[in-house]
Specification:
This protein is α/β, with parallel strands linked by helices and 422 residues long. It is built from 15 helices and 8 strands. Bound molecules: guanosine-5'-diphosphate (GDP) and magnesium ion.
């Protein structure tokens, strides 16, 4: 029994030893734990996929990277750039100064051109009135009592108006009596300064940004240049970034509306209009309403200038003005009266006529380029004490100028002998 048990045990031991031997041989060199390795090929495969994607991504990148080959090449290119920049840095400072100087020169050149153009525009008037006054003094080295009479004659024939002539002559006489003027040149300078004083009426620019919309009513008799002035103002302001609405309140003639529409297109400005013969005040009301809705900066109302019709012009204009105030409390901010310089003293009477019914806030004197009667500006300002806001010295947009008294005086009293350009 014992022998049998020991035999079984020995046989079992041999079998176990054999199994261990076989197993250990089949799993040669590998730790037993790695039998679970079959699970690992999956991560390995997963690792491959990203590895495959990576090259793909790397391939996708090459496109930008293809452009980037330049940068790797650029670094070598950059260093040469830096030295160039470095060498430019001192140059840049020099350039800035040069640029500033060039800009100043350009500005001066522009101003010279502007003044020259103004002198050219005023040439007919200068050739008339001012040349006559100049000649009066040129031949005389000493003051002659007859000079006052001659001056009076010259002024009276120069469309300055009787009142203004009388006043200027009395001023010269008084200065002569006080021995303040020693020679003809001094009389010339005295006149120039008196004219400057007369023309310096409240010389402030329109406060376009003071309210929105800023509203301007433009009035004047037919043909003086209202629509043209409005068109020039609208294009100038549009160029400055302002949004302008035009009210075609000269409903009397269809042509007037068309003319305004042409300017409106140039200025990219909305033109509010109605049927021919419609009530002008309703057009202006609509224009202000539209300007408010569209957040426009400026409204300019063109009006009719006929004098002899069923509806009296002044009554109609008064109504337009009233309705403007209804549409916007502060409206109209300006009532500009346009005058044609070629009409001479007639323009002085027109101011009186319009002033009676409308609160005129400023004047526009057009067509100075085409008349020797521009001296009327002195009469207008002396008699009516109203500021000249703009002057017209031609038909182009830039020929409507903000009135600047000093430039105007220099251009008007410019002595032809000073230069060949005027
Ligand atoms: N030479 C010149 N012509 C002007 C000037 N202003 C307006 N005009 C011309 O005068 C004419 C009448 O102008 P318009 O605007 O229709 O006058 P409105 O009837 O008052 O609207 C037009 O032929 C304009 O071109 C100016 O400053 N110089
Ligand atoms: Mg017109």
């Amino acid at each position: 029994m014992t022998i049998e048990i020991w035999g079984i045990i020995a046989a079992a031991a041999v079998v176990i030893a054999l199994i261990i031997f076989i197993v250990s041989r089949s799993a040669k060199g590998k730790p037993a734990g790695e039998l679970k390795a079959p699970a690992e090929p999956q991560p390995t495969a997963e690792e491959v996929l990203p590895a495959k994607e990576e090259p793909a991504a790397a391939e996708a990148e090459p496109t930008p990277a293809e452009l980037e080959p330049v940068p790797p090449e650029e670094p070598p290119a950059a260093p040469p750039k830096e030295p160039v920049r470095e060498s430019l840095i001192p140059g840049v400072e020099v350039d800035e100064t040069a640029e500033r100087e060039a800009a100043a020169k350009l500005k001066e050149a522009r101003r010279d051109r502007k003044l020259k153009r103004l002198r050219q525009g005023l040439a007919p008037t200068r050739g008339g009135l001012i040349a006559k006054i100049g000649n009066l003094f040129k031949e005389k080295k000493e003051l002659d009592p007859a000079i006052v009479e001659e001056l009076e004659e010259t002024l009276i024939t120069a469309d300055i108006g009787a009142k203004t002539t009388e006043w200027l002559v009395s001023m010269v006489k008084a200065a002569l009596d006080k021995n303040e003027l020693q020679d003809p040149q001094a009389v010339w300078e005295f006149l120039k300064e008196e004219v400057r004083r007369v023309l310096s009426v409240d010389d402030v620019p329109l406060a376009l940004n003071s309210d929105k919309p800023y509203t301007i009513m433009v009035v004047g008799v037919n043909g003086v240049g209202k629509t043209t002035t409005i068109g020039k103002l609208a294009t100038t302001w549009a160029d400055q970034g302002k949004k302008v609405v035009l009210a075609a309140a000269d409903t009397f003639r269809a042509a007037a509306v068309n003319q305004l529409e042409i300017w409106g297109r140039r200025a990219n400005a909305e033109v509010v209009k109605s049927k021919e013969g419609a009530d002008p005040s309703s057009v202006v009301f609509d224009a202000i309403k539209k300007a408010k809705e569209s957040d426009a900066d400026i409204v300019i109302a063109d009006t009719a200038g006929r004098l002899h019709t069923k509806t009296p012009l002044m009554e109609e204009l008064k109504k337009v003005k009233r309705v403007m105030t209804k549409a916007h409390d502060a409206a109209p901010h300006q009532v500009l009266l346009v005058l044609d310089a070629t009409t001479g003293q007639n323009a002085i009477q027109q101011v009186a006529m319009f002033k009676e019914t409308l609160d005129i806030s400023g004047l526009v004197l057009t067509k100075l380029d085409g008349t020797a009667k521009g001296g009327v500006i002195i009469g207008i300002c002396h008699e009516h004490k109203l500021p000249i806001r703009y002057i017209g010295i031609g038909e182009a947009k830039e020929d409507l100028r903000t009135f600047e008294v000093d430039d105007f005086i220099e251009a008007l009293f410019f002595k032809e002998s000073n230069s060949e350009d005027a």
